[in-house]
Amino acid sequence: MAKQQNLKSGGYIFKRGTTYYLQYDINKKRHVKSLRTKNQRQAQEKAKELLDPVIHSNDKTKVIENVAKARQIIQPSSLKLQSVWKAYIKTSTDDRPNSSAGTLGNYERNWKQFTDWLKDSYPAIEYLCDQIDEQIAKEYRDHLKTLKLADTTFNYKIGALKLIFRVLMKKACLSSNVWDSISRIKHPKQETKKQFTFQQSESLLNTFDKDEFQPMHKEQLKVLFAIGIYSGQRLIDCVNLKWSNIIKFDTGLAIQCKPQKTIKFNKSITAPIVKSLQTALAEARGWEDESGYILPDIAKRYEYNPTGVRKDAIKVFSEAGYITSKTKDGSDKDSRKYSAYGFHSLRHALFSHLCQKGVTIERLKTWSGDSEKTLLKYYLHADHEKMISDAQEAINFIDIEASEPETLQIEDNEPERKDLVELVQSLPIEKVIKLKQLIQNGDY
Fold first, then answer.
1. Which pLDDT score is estimated for 256?
2. Interacting residues of 436 by C-beta distance below 8 A, sequence separation 6+
3. From CA 240, how far away is CA 380, in angstroms rounded?
4. For residue 68, is pLDDT > 60?
5. Rounded to whole angstroms, how far apart are CA atoms 204 and 385?
6. Does the pLDDT value for residue 106 go beyond 80?
7. At a CB cut-off of 8 Å and minimum separation 6, what does 339 contact?
8. CA distance linking residue 157 with residue 117, whole number of Å
């Protein structure tokens, strides 16, 4: 028997002797039919005629329904849409990215969003197959655009579908990846959180002193914020922190854990526990239980309702007087809103503050778990006010020295002053500025 040839429309043709045959399955029953030809091209055309009856319709939905009824189960594979995600998870990480639990959760949500839309738009499609063609992909692209998503979110959703189709392409016998034809947005506009200072972060703790502010698990939520403010960890890592993550060193206490975002790299962080955080953790000892979580009630809630915990975190900002959402384009138009402040703002505030205070990049890498590139991109912001004042001082000093040295009258009985002027004129400007500071401080 000659090697089987997979047909795009499902089924196989093979050669027995000098004649080609068609093999296909219907309702799990195998059928073999002679194509009565010795010519391979004619065999392919006859097989297509049998598997793809010409159906005329102006309604694409009706075409798909009619084809599905005519074929009954003639699909390229038995991979149903409802089983796709389970198949993706079961795929070896040798054949798909070794993504974190958070990333996998995002992929799964994007897949469900697509299949929900597909169920409403094309209910006859039940399998991951070539019926999901380029036209359907474009229609879904246009649907996403009506949601007024951020550019990066749109790209992420298209990218997730492209990845899932690519990983399962062979298993589903897909002839191509339709998402390859869908262009993602080039140079996407970044929508970042509003700048938030470390001092503003600390002031949020005062919000919990208000009697009228009563979120779920208020006392534990306050400690959650203290952990975020002083350790800079992400929300999920603060929620899942355990007492076993508190490590005692000769010089004090520190948090040691593997952040969810980098756990696949087996990468740990060490975050020093400052006095304010140590005080908050001492209060948390009052609700310690067998679970080992520092925030047991919030950790339990996060398992079944992470959105609820995130919303309570945003309420803290709102209660403190910060506008927590704004429209995508910054206007008051009816547009998709996104969070202007959130728990992640605490992380940005802390590491930006530490950068400005001169903490070395190497120490920040150990503390945050981020790479040097990420730290420089997101946290090492210029202190504009200090930069401007330093420039004013430097430029004014340059002007004085540049405009007056030739007109300065040095008395013969002031040799030290004369030597100093000559020294200033010979030095690079950065050393002149340093010399001036030494003189002003009385150190020269």
1. 94
2. 397
3. 28
4. no
5. 24
6. yes
7. 193, 314, 324, 325
8. 13
Q: Does domain 198-378 have CATH number 1.10.443.10?
A: yes
Q: What torsion do the CA atoms of 229, 231, 235, 239 make, to the nearest 10 degrees?
A: -110
Taking the whole predicted model, whether its pTM rises above 0.70 is answered as no
Residue type, 379: Y
Which tokens is 88 given? 């993706």
How far is it, in rounded angstroms, from Cα 396 to Cα 173?
Answer: 73
Q: Which ranges of 168-250 would DSSP assign to H, the alpha helix?
A: 198-203, 218-231, 235-239
117: left (phi over 0), alpha (psi -120 to 50) or beta: alpha
What DSSP string runs through 227-252?
Answer: HHHHH---HHHHHT-BGGGEEEETTE
**Rounded to whole angstroms, what are the CA distances from 407 to 95, 400, 402, 414, 421?**
78, 11, 11, 16, 12
Q: What is the mean pLDDT of residues 380-386?
A: 57
Residue 29 amino acid letter? K
37-46, 81-90, 115-124: lowest mean pLDDT where?
37-46
307: tokens are 């959105």
40 three-state secondary structure: helix
pLDDT of residue 428: 65
Give CA–CA dist 74/20, Å, rounded. Answer: 19
Name 442's Cβ contacts closer than 8 Å, sequence gap at least 6. none
Give the residue, 385 or 300, on which the prediction is more confident: 300
Nearest Cα neighbor of 343 from 312, 365, 321 is 312
Selection from 273, 260, 228 nearest residue 369 by Cα: 260
Q: Report residue 372 CA to chain centroid gap.
A: 18
d(CA 56, CA 54): 7
CA–CA separation, 76 vs 270, rounded Å? 51
Instruction: Look at 187 and 278; give whichever has higher pLDDT.
Output: 278
The domain spans of the chain are: 5-52, 81-181, 198-378, 384-440
Residue 154 has pLDDT above 70, yes or no: yes
Give the CATH number of domain 81-181: 1.10.150
Computed over every residue of the chain, the mean pLDDT equals: 79
Tell me how far CA of residue 361 lies from CA of 18, 369, 371, 381, in angstroms: 73, 11, 9, 13
Q: Are 240 and 258 in contact (CB under 8 A)?
A: no
